[in-house]
Amino acid sequence: MSFVTDLFSAAGRVAVITGGGTGLGFWMSEAWVKNGGKVYITGRREETLKAAVAKLNSIRKGSASYIQADVSIQAEINKLASELSVHEKAIDVLVNNAGVAGYDPNTSDAPLATFDSEAWVRQFTLHAWAPAAVTSALSPLLVEAAKKGEGRGSVILIGSIAEDFWFYSWPSNGYSVSKAAEAALAKTLANKLIGHGVRVNTIKPGTFATEMNDASVSGTGAHEDSVKRNVPLKRNGAADDIAAIFLFFATKAGAYVTGQEISVDGGWTLVANGLEPAGGAST
């Protein structure tokens, strides 16, 4: 095994990825399995989970399992922790990836959108409360892994560059604010867990063409025209783009890194708040 391969290896390690059946969650699960690791994916839709696990196990037999769980509900989180404890004595990586998009109704003649309370509650529950509750429930397994060293015991939150946007007309104000809350949570978790050897870091994706970031919805960042107009690198993120940062935070490569954020956005945050990228306006 080469030096670099050893640094980023997932061999013999166990990951849990919420919302792992589709989009970014599936891409990270795929990267973990390809790199020698074992993964448990969670989500609400059992058929989606079954299909994802079948694909993952076709890469490497016996590398993936699923536990159906809605992480917006405490009882479901308790069930997730209980089932994992039956199968594993330690969890090397937890990725809090489950999320939801929401769009606040807006009209051209109104100074502000109509903020939908149900959408905001759903987004704050999944993006701020759920990562806290899931991390708490799995913390004994994470602490056990951290005792082994070499970067084990890693918590990764999937945030968003949306938390940094105020100029760009983001279609979901609740999403942006809930992701800002998640960023604050990440710092708190990192502070509370560092004494136990558990690391907490955040990946902030930009525009990726996933099921949740549906390019057919007017105004969403994944739309091709929006990407060419706003993202300096002129493309959506792809599976390899998220996988590389995930593997860094999840393995020995990132063993000395905690409480940090990395934006994976093609440079969008460089120009999103009023400055123009080369060759075009930002709105």
UniProtKB/TrEMBL annotation:
Coiled coil: none
Alphabetical UniProt keywords: NADP, Oxidoreductase
Keyword Nucleotide-binding: no
MF annotations from Gene Ontology: oxidoreductase activity
PANTHER family: 7-ALPHA-HYDROXYSTEROID DEHYDROGENASE, SHORT CHAIN DEHYDROGENASE_REDUCTASE FAMILY (AFU_ORTHOLOGUE AFUA_7G04540)
Family of the protein in this entry: Belongs to the short-chain dehydrogenases/reductases (SDR) family.
Protein name: NAD(P)-binding protein
Organism, as annotated: Dentipellis fragilis
Taxonomic lineage of the native organism: Eukaryota, Fungi, Dikarya, Basidiomycota, Agaricomycotina
